[in-house]
Fold ARM repeat-containing protein.
Amino acid sequence: MVQRKVNALLNKLTLKNFESLSDQIIVYGNKSRGERDGRILREIIRLIFERSCNDSKFCAIYAYLCRKMMERVDPEIVDESIKNTDGKSVQGEDFEKGWKINIPSSSNESDLTSDKYYAAAKAKRKGLGLICFIGEMFKLNMLTENIMHNCISELSIFKDSPKEEEMESLCILLNTVGKQLDHKISKMNSYFDRLEKISKLPSLSNRIKFMLMDIINLRKND
């Protein structure tokens, strides 16, 4: 019942009606008072998380919603299941998937409509959406600069030649948070010096080279 009602509210959520609809979502979240596992609130968070990953165009508004929920949800609500069996956060695993999943390439048209290709494309889209979502949460002071720098460093360091999915993730992250990080000039200069070198590697496709050059030029012209 709660899932259906919250989904209906999320379907209608826009900047214009954000305050009223987000207030209603928070009311549902606070129904987890007295639950040991905070299952209602967890379900609402799951819905927001999945939507932000599936459609990056709405990452900013979902990040605003998370920020408001963080401030307004009853702090007494208990959630005892925020870790998986390996002790890692679910978000952490999915963030890695954003740049680790490689969509199978093939010149055979039937391969491009296969279940394997569809599943990989869907997983990659969700991972890239999550990277954008994480960037938007950082812009709202929900994540630290150190986390962003660690992500950028991990994406830009590679052995032999870079993987294109990692470079695409790097471009999305820098496009989202680069301006906010640019007060540390020397560190950002080192990132972009590396991007310049990477963009000249012959092993990269033209699509990724153009993405890298767009990010480089965006900073130069800002």
Residues 115-139 form the longest helix (25 residues). DSSP finds eleven helices and no strands in the chain.
